[in-house]
């Protein structure tokens, strides 16, 4: 663009979906001039003559067009203008088309975010923030966007420069221990509900998520596929998978469902193994506890059992998917199993595979007292 050393760029900052308002950000030396080319304020004040921070209401219209778009323009700086139009995709795309035809470069909000931050971790946090599905997850990502993890890595760099490798390694051990938590700030924890047929797996899923996600019939083998339902427990995103009842079956379709159930168990962050309170067999239950010691074992249908005696060994929970008895305790137990310790506000947390891989490499260099290689790893983490 004539007269400018860097290109003026435009990006839509709001999601590409139906909404009340869409925001187009224009940055660069020609931002104000481009806005004035297409925008006419109702108060007859040009964007160029408007003070910084002034909000103008008017029409956006290209030369030769019969109809303009009523919208709001805000001058945020001498080289930054925001255009707030109707939330439909067509409105924002029309504005981008006008700007592009005048020499403005159109970029994605991701590119805009990355270009605005020299700190790679801060940029990654801002890119990931829109994918956080709960407020608690978003708050921890916001801490990283405000530099919590970057500051901790910089501190580790100072320790390396001082040859204090022991403390640096301890800090890295702590960061890596938080990696599973960080990964689930943008990806729900995976919970698989498993057990024999007709034990109430689908009913329990429906009770926890609060609506009928799974079909419930009094017939063994009803669930043939893996059904998923995403919800939040104590503010943390989780995805439940209701699986086919695991048993010996000659039905090919049911066999396929059982195979999927076993495969889902291998990828789960937590398995909930259910047992029938009306048909509780101590020997089989003890064997189940031994085979899946890390699973959460639940005895369901306690509303139908006359007398219930749970094994002394292993953690067991008793529930009724019909009345809801024991379900709040089950939810609390699920959360404590998934997140034994919730990080504090402002705690540094790695949240991408790039960061975790980089921290592991850094840990190796620190363990071997390789100061130069460690500092190079830190530079790659912060400035990738």
Characteristics:
384 residues; 6-stranded mixed β-sheet; 7-stranded mixed β-sheet; Gyrase A, domain 2
Structure report:
It is a single chain. The strands form two sheets. This protein has a seven-stranded mixed sheet, covered by helices on one side. Strands 9-10-8-11-12-13 form a six-stranded mixed sheet, sandwiched between helices. Helix content is 41%, strand content 19%. It has 14 helices and 13 strands. The chain has three domains: 9-116, Gyrase A, domain 2 (2-Layer Sandwich), CATH 3.30.1360; 120-178 and 344-383, Four Helix Bundle (Hemerythrin (Met), subunit A); 189-338, P-loop containing nucleotide triphosphate hydrolases (Rossmann fold). It is α/β, with parallel strands linked by helices. It has helices at 31-38, 89-101, 109-116, 120-128, 135-145, 148-161, 165-177, 179-183, 201-209, 252-267, 282-291, 327-338, 353-367, 371-383, and strands at 9-12, 21-27, 39-41, 55-60, 69-77, 80-86, 105-106, 189-194, 227-233, 236-242, 270-276, 296-300, 316-318. The longest helix is centred in the C-terminal third of the chain and has 16 residues, at 252-267.
Largest sheet: 7 strands, mixed
Poorly predicted segments: 213-225, 244-258
Return the CATH architecture of the largest domain: 3-Layer(aba) Sandwich
CATH overall fold name of the largest domain = Rossmann fold
Question: Which word captures the global form?
Answer: flat
